[in-house]
Specification:
Elements: H1 10-31, H2 35-38, H3 46-72, H4 76-93, H5 97-135
Helix pairs in contact: 1-3, 1-5, 3-4, 3-5, 4-5
Length: 136
């Protein structure tokens, strides 16, 4: 009997939640009038925004740390993640809604790029290890 191991691609999950956050930032002003008609009023609540941000940040922190320590040791994804944290923090402190959304949008873009580079570096490291095992 062959047992398959299910592996979770945390970079993809982080990328996906970051992308959802970005869609939320972009589409919220457009769809805000439609949400009550569709029964999706909860999407306009700040709790939902903080939930998306918090989920994205926790996944990203786990993935960036794991990728750096366990696989590639490159700091560029971590620096992009820190840039994201700074942009989100400044956005939360500023009262201007347009500036807040702009900073969150930029931060989400940096987070998506950080997940991409982390995935790329981790994938390259894993494929090198697999090649080394087959050569032995």
């Amino acid at each position: 009997m062959i047992h398959k191991t299910i592996r979770v691609n945390w970079d993809f999950i982080g990328f996906f939640t970051s992308f959802l956050c970005m869609l939320h930032c972009v589409l919220l002003p457009i769809c805000i009038a439609l949400f009550p008609l569709m029964g999706l009023v909860f999407l306009t609540d700040e709790f939902y925004e903080f939930f998306l941000i918090g989920t994205s940040m926790m996944i990203a922190m786990f993935v960036m740390y794991n990728g750096y320590k366990r696989y590639h040791g490159k700091s560029s994804p971590s620096f992009l993640f820190i840039t994201t944290l700074v942009l989100f923090s400044i956005g939360l402190l500023i009262e201007n809604h347009l500036v807040e959304k702009t900073l969150h949008f930029l931060g989400t873009g940096f987070l998506i790029i950080a997940h991409y580079y982390n995935w790329k570096f981790t994938k390259g490291y894993k494929s090198c290890k697999i090649k080394q095992r087959h050569q032995m």
